[in-house]
């Protein structure tokens, strides 16, 4: 029996061969709907947002160090300024959960 057929076709080879399947039909993405962006546009927006967030996450460790040093030297806040090192982890968790 071939994939999708309802009758047995043993011995014939006019359809998909052993181990081959017919492709499953899929619906076309509604790109022309008024007021709704196409699927590729949504994917492009998500990818652009992901790139921006990855850049922010890459810089967050260095920024935390700079903020720590600025707070320490200008305000003498060495005893509580270590809290800024928690912010990159919190930011990463928040952004990971929002995807």
Structure description:
The structure is a single chain. By secondary structure, the chain is mainly α. The chain has a domain of 43 residues. 49% of the residues lie in helices and 0% in strands. The mean pLDDT is 77.
Strand share of the residues? under 5%
- Principal-axis shape: rod-shaped
Average pLDDT value?
77
The whole-angstrom Rg is 28 Å
DSSP E strands, number: 0
The major β-sheet equals:
none
Helix run count: 2
Q: In whole angstroms, how far apart are the ends?
A: 43 Å
**Low-pLDDT residue intervals, each spanning 5 or more residues:** none
- How helical, in percent, are the residues? 40-55%
H-E string: HH
Category by helix and strand content: mainly alpha
Highlighted features:
rod-shaped; mainly alpha; 99 residues; 2 helices; 0% strand; single chain
Strand and helix map with partners:
Blueprint: H1 39-75, H2 87-98
Helix pairs in contact: 1-2
Keywords: Membrane, Transmembrane, Transmembrane helix
Give the gist of this structure.
This protein has two helices and no strands.
């Amino acid at each position: 029996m071939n994939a999708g057929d309802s009758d047995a076709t043993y011995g014939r080879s006019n359809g998909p061969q052993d181990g081959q399947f017919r492709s499953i039909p899929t619906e076309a993405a509604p790109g022309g709907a008024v007021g709704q962006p196409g699927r590729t546009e949504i994917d492009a927006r998500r990818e652009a947002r992901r790139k921006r967030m990855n850049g922010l996450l890459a810089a967050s460790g260095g920024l935390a160090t700079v903020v720590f040093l600025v707070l320490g030297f200008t305000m003498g806040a060495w005893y509580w300024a270590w809290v800024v090192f928690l912010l990159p982890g919190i930011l990463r968790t928040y952004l990971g959960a929002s995807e």
